Amino acid sequence: MFSDIPGLAAPARPAQKLWTFEAETFSPEECSAIIALMETGRQKDATLVNGEAVSRIRRTAIHWLPEGPDTDWIYQRLARLVASANREHFNYALDGFQEDAQVARYQDGGFYDWHIDRGGRGAAGRARKLTIAIQLSPPDAYEGGDLQLNPEGHVLTAPRDPGTAAVFPAFVLHRVTPVTAGARHSLVIWTHGPDFT
Fold it and tell me: What does the alpha-carbon distance between residue 118 and residue 139 come to, in Å, rounded to a whole number?
């Protein structure tokens, strides 16, 4: 309707994608600082989105990072990343973060089999829209441990460079392959918004 009025044409909407990899979201030094927050914090065995612990599907240690003076810089960076990635690639209606970020450590065969990030109760069941998974460990710190996505019937492997973010809709199938040596750390958070229609 506005296309025939000079200067009032509706802005072009980005084509929706099912993933993007964003380099240098955090510097290697910042990645080490985030890992240190986990190492000095309270860790627990991870569960599935429904709260169940099923070791044949997921074997990971996690540490939740609540917002606060020590983590504000992380959340500010994540908010900027999400705003940019959503504007450029997804164009979803987003409300913000309704869940804390988590740092995950995969070691000694740790893995997370194919899954999506929606289900269960609460925000995970309805409102998760985008998953943001950020590589923290340097690639020579571990073997195995690839983050893989299967958005359209073919497997994509995320880059292993520290600070690189994989951003994708929470309904996209993904996994972390078993870590066969060393330890892999990642930072994961979800953005939320009105349910997909």
Answer: 28
